[in-house]
Amino acid sequence: MKNRSWDPSPSDNFDFWTDVRQAWQESFANVAPSAEVDFYDPVFERVFSDSSKYDLIALSVLDFRTAVRNTPKTKILGVCWGHQAVARALGGEVGAVPTGPIAAIQDIALTDAGKKFFTFAASTGSYRAPEFHVREVAKPAPGFVHLASNHECFVNEANTVLSFQAHPEISNKLAQKMFIEDDKEYNGNSTAEQLKVEVQKLDQPTDGMKLLKQVIQWLDE
């Protein structure tokens, strides 16, 4: 099996891209150690690849509609910005988060369909994962099934496109680093004590690897 991981955020910060790339490498090594994983950087290197050669694309910056049209058998995973890109490309709408930027580990409530999809969370009815975003899906694209509340996770009716607003690949350590080093969106008005409290909150256990293991199972369906 081959997986291709694209940068899951359109950040223009090269250090951020490097950190997230490493997070994907470590995550796939954990959940699919035999997989061949290639990375392409359309932001800095402007490098795209032939999606027909892969079983899965984890995307953010991509000519998504071209990939869907040309390689309908290649499954696509959208994460964070990729989640929003999928929705917008296929007829949905994206807008600012009404309550302001989100930088936190979130408990995401599942729908009935989501409980069947994410079997590990069927009893609790939710999954927990880091989120860092200032925009969100305001209106889903037609033909997608809600797996979680508040437009947080979808799978299309053809079962070939799956997307999360959350970051299942991001560890607690990286989440804390991202929050501390941010000086604009998430902590610009925070005091040192407030930062300390928020960083501690980012140390909660998450279901990131369980989510990605479910992605690998979905890939084989």
What's the tally of helices? 7
- Structural class from helices and strands? alpha/beta
CATH architecture: 3-Layer(aba) Sandwich
DSSP, total strands: 11
Protein name: Glutamine amidotransferase domain-containing protein
Organism: Penicillium egyptiacum
Pfam family, one: GATase
InterPro entries: ChyE-like (IPR044992), Class_I_gatase-like (IPR029062), GATASE (IPR017926)
Fold and architecture overview:
The chain is an alpha/beta fold and 221 residues long. The protein has one domain: 3-Layer(aba) Sandwich (Rossmann fold). The chain is 33% helix and 25% strand. The chain contains 7 helices and 11 strands. The protein has helices at residues 14-31, 64-70, 81-89, 112-117, 172-181, 192-201, 208-219, and strands at residues 2-6, 36-40, 56-59, 75-79, 93-96, 102-109, 126-133, 135-139, 144-146, 153-156, 161-164. It has a 7-stranded mixed β-sheet. Strands 5-8 form a two-stranded antiparallel ribbon. It has a two-stranded antiparallel ribbon with strand order 6-7. Strand 1 (2-6), helix 1 (14-31) and strand 2 (36-40) form a beta-alpha-beta unit. The longest helix is centred in the first third of the chain and has 18 residues, at 14-31. The protein is globular and about 50 Å long. The two termini are 13 Å apart. Mean pLDDT is 83; it is low at 1-10. This is Glutamine amidotransferase domain-containing protein. Pfam families: GATase. Residues 72-182 form the Glutamine amidotransferase domain. InterPro entries: ChyE-like, Class_I_gatase-like, GATASE.
